[in-house]
Amino acid sequence: MRLPARFVPLTAVTTATSALLTGCFSAAGPEEAGSEGKRIRVAMMQPPRSGLSPLSDDAFKLSRWSTAETLVKLDAEGDARPALATEWKRSGKTWTFTIREGVTFHDGTKLTAAAVVNSLTEAATASPKPRILDGVDLKAKADGDTVTVTTAVEDPLVPQRLSSPQLSILAAKAYEGKTVNPLGAGTGPFELTEVNGTASAALDRYDDYWGGKAKAPGIDVKYVPDGTARAASLRSGEADIVEAVPVSQAAVLDQDLITEVPMPRTNTLYLNTEKGVFKDASLRAAAREAVDAESIVEGVYEGRADVAEGLLGPALPWAAELRSPLKRAEAGDPDGEAITIGTFTDRAELPEVAATLQQQLQKAGFKVKLDVREYANIESDALAGEFDAFILSRATVLDSGDPAAYLYSDFASDGSFNISQLADKTVDTAIDQASDTAAGDARRQAVIEAEAAVLTTDAAVPMLHERVIQGDAAGVVDAAHDPRERELVTADTYVK
């Protein structure tokens, strides 16, 4: 039995091999003169893919380092809260945001409504657009100390969209040329001062930060894609904060240094409803009944995950309270039907999940073949419906902090990530209803009704909800433990 790690409930979230690592960090870590403390050494999983452009997924690195900020932040419930905007109001298709006074960019220029409009316009007119604006026609205009944001159709989620790190507000100098360069262009407590390609980055404290001086003098980042090496950096004392500790390595670390946080990411078996064996609803039901998620959680994830009760997990604490029992189809007899299950190697646990599922489905009467590749080499086949089933670890709140976008993308008839090839009018209606409902309790109820509509089809069999496993050295104080992985080092984080 594994020793218990720290487990952070959602209400508390965001408040508070050695040879492979040779040369990653200095043994003791650089210190500032005087009593200001140590710089924070961070080992991150993935190197930047787009030169740290905020218009890409690299934006989440800028957010986790507290260098780039957005107009709005999200609380634990996914509701919008002030950041660079202090307040907002809606009138039909138009939202008006009041811009915070007294904010400067790291290059010394002032945050103005015009600067905000410049950043939002660059994002809205980019090709391709940031994912958060996929299908959204957004225009921004400055008016004194306010910014009006208008969409082509009424969108109740505009504030949540503007919380996405991909819509960070940067100084005008960041947008010179064809790329977006965040170096010295943010508004956060730390200034990005050095970028060394896919090897490392450095940030220094920005003493004129509008929210107060950060407690740490700076951050030194190393990219360590190998999970064993990242874990070893914590064990050896070469890193202070280690993100995305693999399940296989968590057990061999000092459990006092490990924190697990419910994550809005579901490991799901998508079943092809358009063609092949699983076009038959009774055989989808047979597959659903054959899946033993508890044994996958214990055997593959060593208990460091949560058995799924639905598509939305404990990272959305309101979901379980709103669910009602479902009426499901009766299971048919697989009778030796042959199926191919695809998955990818990029997430270390998925090939083992696939092997376990293969055994479970074969026991139920299916003949199962596995096709396991790198994600870049398998995504197009999955989206084209080339598999009978596909195992995917999928974020369920995407960039807006709201699950309706995920439900639309994955299960609407014209969804862009519809691996199940699902085309169901009841599902479409339920998802549209959720998407059109204003943020708050009514929207959450509509989301759960859309989830129920999807689950009734057995187009997707949710198996488990993953956890963020983060390593913090003994001297680290107030590192963020964020299920959305938007925060890591904040102004309050320091090393003793």
Automatic annotation (TrEMBL):
SUPFAM superfamilies according to UniProt: Periplasmic binding protein-like II
Species lineage: Bacteria, Bacillati, Actinomycetota, Actinomycetes, Kitasatosporales
Limits of the Solute-binding protein family domain: 81-416
Domain of life assignment: Bacteria
InterPro entries named among the record's database cross-references: Peptide/Ni-bd, SBP_5, SBP_5_dom
Signal peptide boundaries: 1-27
Protein name (Swiss-Prot/TrEMBL): ABC transporter substrate-binding protein
Keyword Cell membrane included in the entry's annotation: no
UniProt keyword annotations, A-Z: Signal
Pfam families given in the database record: SBP_bac_5 (PF00496)
